[in-house]
């Protein structure tokens, strides 16, 4: 028996047949934690194959596009940081801009005429910071931060990008990323050309700081465990995994908290006869942490869209579409 999994894309509907050992088990995604302030999403992928879970993880890391600095026109750099190191730092600054509003730009060439650039392909930032000594001897602008980026709108970008997630215009995700320190009279003056890309091309395009999954622990008590033995069993796991009833009997409270898949109970000769430890092979606990370019829940949606498009292409090659 085959179970149909349907995913509706923006332009079409794709129905893929998957053979399951048990037709009554249907894949599902359960949201367990969403911290929008930190950009962290935790969700469960249930009744799925390892290949599907790993495909989502790999696409999140390498194939969901973002926007990052691609070319740097460095007019002046009298800081102690070498030019190539400074340019690399600029490229690694995550930018708060929706990549879905841009097209790919494979043949970008450095140019000072920004008006000749395609506003649907290129985003421009300027950086111009000079350190000066005040009358009292203190230094002004002796540190260069990501907040010193200045967006230069081209074409109709001002109306296109000023709203939505950009909140006033594209900018670095964090304003306090330290890029360089300057001495009196030192100056950094650069123009940055940003394009859309994927992590498969360069790490600066990775949309996630981390994306990983683990299997849900399967902890089973084969007989009643009470008294001092129950206390020892609880101490073998992280807090919250094993709890004690009012009668002092051990119960499995929350196997999700067993993040290390502890096997400490199996080292105890007495506890070894009371508990069976394993993993639920089709229950994946995902953690996705966004760099801030898009919310983590949007990144998961985009990764599934990329996966579906890959499936469409493969089915087309097989002549099934």
From TrEMBL:
Q: Which UniProt keywords apply?
A: DNA-directed RNA polymerase, Transcription
Q: Could you cite one Gene Ontology molecular function of this protein? A: protein dimerization activity
Q: Which Pfam families does the annotation name?
A: RNA_pol_L
The record's annotation in CDD domains points to: RNAP_I_II_AC40
- Ranges for domain DNA-directed RNA polymerase RpoA/D/Rpb3-type: 40-317
State the SMART domains in the record: RPOLD
Instruction: Output the Gene3D superfamilies linked to this UniProt entry.
Output: DNA-directed RNA polymerase, insert domain, RNA polymerase, RBP11-like subunit
Keyword Transferase found: no
Q: Tell me which Gene Ontology terms the entry assigns under biological process.
A: DNA-templated transcription
Under the heading HAMAP family, the entry gives: RNApol_arch_Rpo3
Q: What is this protein called?
A: DNA-directed RNA polymerase RpoA/D/Rpb3-type domain-containing protein
């Amino acid at each position: 028996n085959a179970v149909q999994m349907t995913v509706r894309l923006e332009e079409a509907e794709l129905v893929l047949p998957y053979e399951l050992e048990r037709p009554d088990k249907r894949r599902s995604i359960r949201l367990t934690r969403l911290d929008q302030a930190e950009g962290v999403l935790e969700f469960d992928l249930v009744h799925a194959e390892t290949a599907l879970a790993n495909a989502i993880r790999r696409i999140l890391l390498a194939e969901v596009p973002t926007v990052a600095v691609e070319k740097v026109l460095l007019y002046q750099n009298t800081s102690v940081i070498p030019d190539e190191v400074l340019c690399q730092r600029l490229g690694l600054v995550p930018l708060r801009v929706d990549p879905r509003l841009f097209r790919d730009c494979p043949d970008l060439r450095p140019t000072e005429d920004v008006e000749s650039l395609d506003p649907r392909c290129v985003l421009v930032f300027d950086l111009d910071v000079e350190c000066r000594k005040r009358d009292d001897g203190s230094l002004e602008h002796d540190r260069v931060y990501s907040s010193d980026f200045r967006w230069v709108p081209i074409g109709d970008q001002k109306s296109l990008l000023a709203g939505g997630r950009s909140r006033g215009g594209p900018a670095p995700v964090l304003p306090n990323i330290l890029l360089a320190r300057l001495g009196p009279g030192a100056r950094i003056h650069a123009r940055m050309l940003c394009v859309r890309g994927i992590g498969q091309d360069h790490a600066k395009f990775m949309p996630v700081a981390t994306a990983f999954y683990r299997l849900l622990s399967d902890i089973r008590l084969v007989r009643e465990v009470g008294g001092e033995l129950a206390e020892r069993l609880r101490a073998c796991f992280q807090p919250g995994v094993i709890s004690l009833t009012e009668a002092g009997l051990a119960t499995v409270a929350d196997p999700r908290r067993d993040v290390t898949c502890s096997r400490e109970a199996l080292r105890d000769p007495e506890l070894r006869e009371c508990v069976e430890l394993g993993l639920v092979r089709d229950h994946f606990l995902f953690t996705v942490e966004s760099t801030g370019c898009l919310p983590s829940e949007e990144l998961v949606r985009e990764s599934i869209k990329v996966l579906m498009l890959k499936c469409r292409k493969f089915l087309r090659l097989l002549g099934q579409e």
